[in-house]
Amino acid sequence: MPFRIDRLGLTLAVAVALVLVLLPLLNLQPNRILPGSGVPLGELIAQPGAQRFILLMIPTAILVCLRVHPALKLGLSALSLLVLIYALGSDSDALLAGSSGFARLALGSGFWALLLLLGLMMTDALIKLELGALLRLLLIVGYLAALFALLANGLWDRLSLMLEYHNQPTFWQQGVRHLLLALGSILPALIVGVPLGIRCHRSPRVRAALIPVLSLLQTIPSLAMFGLLMIPLSLLALSFPLLAEFGIRGIGVAPAVLALFLYSLLPIVSNTAAGFDGLDPAVLQAARGMGMSRRQMLWQIELPLALPVMLSGLRIVVTMNIGLVAVAGLIGGGGYGTYIFQGLGQTATDLVLLGTLPTILLAFLAALLIDTLIAMTQREAR
Amino acid sequence: MPALAATATPNAFRFLLAWRGVLIPLLLLLYLALFTSTLTPLLQSLTPVGAPVIYIRDSFINLIGWHLLLVVLSIAAASLIAITAAILVSRPSGADFLPLARSLANLGQTLPPVAVLALAVPAVGFGSWPALIALFLYGLLPIFENTLAGLSQVRPEIKEAAKGIGMGPMQVLWRVELPLALPVIITGVRLSVIISIGTATIGSTVAAKGLGEVIIAGLLTDNLSFILQGGVIVALMAMLFDALFQRIESCLSLGQNS
Predict the structure, then answer these.
(1) Residue B4 domain flag
(2) CA of A339 to nearest chain B CA: how many angstroms apart?
(3) Looking at residue A250, what is its pLDDT?
(4) Cβ–Cβ of A250/B119 closer than 8 Å?
């Protein structure tokens, strides 16, 4: 069989080679704040871990350029990334030897670029494998769990990102708070939004009145919305001190939750309406013919069939809110945004990363989870 | 597009009605930006004693200008790159890239804008540059996704017909596919512009010039009046652009149907 070239794979492989030559995988910084200089490739390549990674990366890059089975590409690129992460950890002791106690070894632009490129290779292979949604979810979660197990084992403890993590004893509490804030405003939005969406489906007049208002709310920038909501809330708290005791204050959680609730309404209402609009009239006719009551039709026919479209509205809302909670860190809402803005204030890149990476990961995992649910409900509905 | 006769009152009235979504925020915005001081008595109660009522470190016109400059520059660049990329991957020679590009556009939208902004700072430092880069990167996705969707919904028989009358591939692209996809592409640009106006506001936390600095100054000094001024002006700006692009979209799709 003649080998044919995969243009995407070729582009990615050339990019990997360029990154390795041009960008530093690691930076050696004199202390936490000052920017450092890249560790040159020549110095890195003298280390055993880096050698192992290069030895694995070369065949991976070659195979990615060819049209071989995607499972092989997926396995090799996933393994390359694991070996890279392992190498950076295991080589860090030797690379830090001879530097002062304040010196830090930080992940460099080359590492982030390689992470992106290997991630692209894995994503492409994963798409071409055409796995079932549940199996795909399990693979990704399993891989991430393996990465976390490596980090939890102290593999990266000499790298500055993990040093920063060990400086933040409340890291996991902030994560729980971040999720609670993001999800806490969705439940009330669902309770209000789903019935409103059904109303919109049944009455064009309600729809014409409601949807423009909700879309107008959606256009208001988040920082402006938080600020504008702070004003009535702090006036309330000033005139009723008891409310302030319950946390209804201008600064903090209350304006954030209220803002997220308002933002969540549009995707929920319009997707519920769209889901109900898309139902097959023949199915409804048949259900009515079987003698179902209106309530039975709603719960047993309409809602389950409209569920996939409603869930894709939920996906928008969940990922949007996870990002917006990070902005709420600015007004004292807590969550990972706190680290982002503290880090920006102190120009401490690693603290910024410690807030940004978990936020991205949470949003990504939430989207993946809901995508799986959508695929499963779609199959059931068929 | 409806022809506008300035002399005919019903037409002028219809014009005002159709464009009210644009005109109302525009007039309010101009009033707030130029005559803010007339609101001083109203805002007095929101201001801490002794603090300035109206933001004075820069004029609102200046701040609006900076804010818009950031948005326009980054979205113009993003449109150029995203539309070109979408055209390339939708050609037969780009087919290898299509599945990955599709799922990237989908995945990328789960990235929080504030995360992109925060990650741009270590790369280029503080100031307007990280905001520009974040707005550009985040602006790519909706435009790319919508251009792909718009191009793929052009019916194959229309393209065949265009080829049949002797058009080359470039002509089919410029004179058939892109005009038909334009309303959907404009929707993508609108989404990007709205997100950018919001992200540029947060950009003030990394020292980008713009209206966010009024809100942030208000947050730092507990001055609700500043927060109100900044918040209302940014919100009006977002509404103005949303309405403007929606008008363009509906004019374009009207032109196509007739």
Answers:
(1) no
(2) 11
(3) 65
(4) no
